[in-house]
Amino acid sequence: MASNSETGHAINIANGKKLTDIITGLSGYSPTNPKLVLGTMQTQQTTDDGLQQTVNTQNGVFQPLQNARVLEFLPIKKLARRVRSAAKSSGADAQWNKDVNAVIRKILGERLSKATPLRRSRRNQRLTAKFRQPDRSF
Asked: What is the pLDDT of residues 37-71, one digit of tens each?
């Protein structure tokens, strides 16, 4: 099942708008924090709407450029693997093939071996167990 979590600046701005609308309907709302006064929140909402509009406009310019770049580099993987196969079947010495493979791995973003997760040392495990907070739930 797909996740239905709300993320992103646009959702935060929409939630701020909902909060401002709810506070507008309250009659006795008078916070002590000046950042939570209705007028300040409405000003912030207007500023946020303008900034989000700017981001949307700039994203409209950026997105076609990014799509063009992705399409331009799409055949690189296939070509790099063909070069790797040609170098391997050419009968060249092992060091040259190793160098070609290193360059191809850099181009494709591959690792020589899988990354291994860091393991905690036994001393570190003892220290974290020693300073762990006791479970106080009842």
From this structure: 999 999 999 999 999 999 989 989 999 999 998 89
pTM confidence score: 0.52
Interatomic CA distance for residues 35 and 44, integer angstroms: 9
User: Rounded to whole angstroms, how far apart are CA atoms 126 and 71?
Assistant: 52
Going from the C-alpha of 20 to that of each of 36, 57, 110, the distances in angstroms are 10, 25, 49
Q: Is residue 3 part of a domain?
A: no
Q: In angstroms, what CA-CA distances link 60 with 12, 53, 64, 66, 67?
A: 21, 11, 7, 11, 11
- Determine the structural domain holding residue 99 and report its residue range: 75-112
For residues 61 and 96, membership in a common domain is answered with no
